[in-house]
Each structure stands twice: as structure tokens, then as C-alpha cells.
Amino acid sequence: MYKQLTSEQRYTISVLLQNRTKQKDIAKAINVSTSTVSREIRRNSGVRRHYNWETAQANAVQTRRRKPGNRSVV
After folding, report:
1. Which residues constitute the domain of residue 18?
2. Could you give the C-alpha distances from 54 to 6, 8, 14, in angstroms and in order?
3. How many domains does the chain have?
4. What does the alpha-carbon distance between residue 49 and residue 30 come to, in Å, rounded to a whole number?
5. What totals of helices (H) and strands (E) does the chain contain, helices first?
6. How far is CA 66 from CA 3, 25, 37, in A?
7. pLDDT at residue 3, rounded to an integer
8. Residue 73 forms part of a structural domain
9. Most buried by CB count within 10 Å: which residue of 21, 30, 58, 66?
10. pLDDT tens sequence for the chain (74 residues)
11. Residues 29, 49: Cα–Cα separation, whole Å
């Protein structure tokens, strides 16, 4: 089942990236797939290729509000 990353997981990614931890080790630390971490970093890194967990969380909240998901239209 698909689940979005939590703000705590995004914060952990940010801290571990600052410590130059490998993506594989980050994935193990937050208990997700390596590809999930890779996509998260790629999608939410800015122009200078720096990952900011607060911006990433704000983007996720915006996306959640914008896309209705699996709701039936009445």
C-alpha cells in the first residue's frame, strides 16, 4: 500500500544528507525503499540541489490538497 513520507522521515533525510550518509543507509534508517529516498531527494531539491525538509513537507501538503485522490464525484 502506498503511503507518503512523514515530516519526521523528511527531517531525518535532511539530517542524514547533511552528514553525507548514503541513500541506502538513509532508506534503512527510515524503513523505506532506496528508490523512495532517491525520488524524494530528486523531487524536492532546489536549483542548487540542496534538500530542504520543510519545503518538501509543504510541497507534499499542497499536492495532497490539490489532488482529490480516490474520492467519488457526486
Report:
1. 7-64
2. 11, 10, 9
3. 1
4. 21
5. 4, 0
6. 17, 32, 23
7. 79
8. no
9. 30
10. 667 899 999 999 999 999 999 999 999 999 999 999 999 999 999 888 899 999 999 999 988 888 776 666 55
11. 22
